[in-house]
Amino acid sequence: MKDAIPVCVSISSRLIDLLTGSLDPAVYEDKIEYETRGLISVENGWVLLRYEEPAGSGMEGSTSSLTFEEGRPGLLSMERSGSAFASLTFDSDHRRQNCAVNAAGFDISFTIILRSFENSLDPEKGGKIELDYIIARGAIEAERVVLKVTASPEEFGK
After folding, report:
1. What is the number of alpha carbons within 13 Å of residue 51 lying toward its C-beta?
2. 118: which strand partners?
3. Fewer CB atoms < 10 Å away: N or C end of the chain?
C-alpha cells in the first residue's frame, strides 16, 4: 500500500427528475456542489478515493469511497457507509447494473443505466471521475444524475 495522499475533493451533482422534469426543468432539477477533504491511495492494486460527506450534503455522517482496479478505470465501485448506505457499480462495458441503497431504514434496489463515464483519476496526481447515468425502478426511468468528482492534491479551498 502506498501512503495515502490528502486531497481536496470537489463534488458537483445534477439530479433531474425524468418523470416530471419535462414540465419545468427549473423546478425538477437539483444541483449540489461542495468541497471536502479526502484521501487517495493504492491498496493491493486498487485505487481508492475516500472522503467524509460534509454537513449540508444530505449525507452527513457518511463516508464515500470510489474504487477501481489499477489499469481498469472503466469499472468503478461507489460505496457509502455510515448514516447512509449505498453500493453502486459503474461499468463502461456493461452499462446496466443492479444496485442498492438503504435510505431512512428502507432497502431500495434499482438499476443504473450508464450514459457516459470518464475516469482520469491518478493516485499520485489526482484527477476526475465524471458519470452521467439514469436510475430506473422496474421499467420506469425516474432520475438522471450527472456527477463530477474531482480530487486535487492542492490545498483545500483553493
Report:
1. 26
2. 130
3. C
**Per-residue tens of pLDDT for the chain, all 158 residues:** 568 999 999 999 998 887 765 555 555 778 889 999 999 999 999 999 999 887 776 677 789 999 999 999 999 999 988 877 888 999 999 999 999 887 777 888 899 999 999 999 999 899 999 999 999 987 777 888 999 999 998 765 55
Q: What whole-number distance in Å separates Cα of residue 151 and Cα of residue 47? A: 13
For 37, the grid coordinates are 477533504
Please choose, from the candidates 51, 70, 71, the residue with its C-alpha nearest in 3D space to the C-alpha of residue 60.
51
CA angle at 89 for the pair 68 and 93, rounded to the nearest 5°: 80
pTM to 2 decimal places: 0.85
- Concatenated DSSP letters of 91-150: ESSS-EEEEEEEETTEEEEEEEEEEEEEE--BTTTBEEEEEEEEEEETTEEEEEEEEEEE
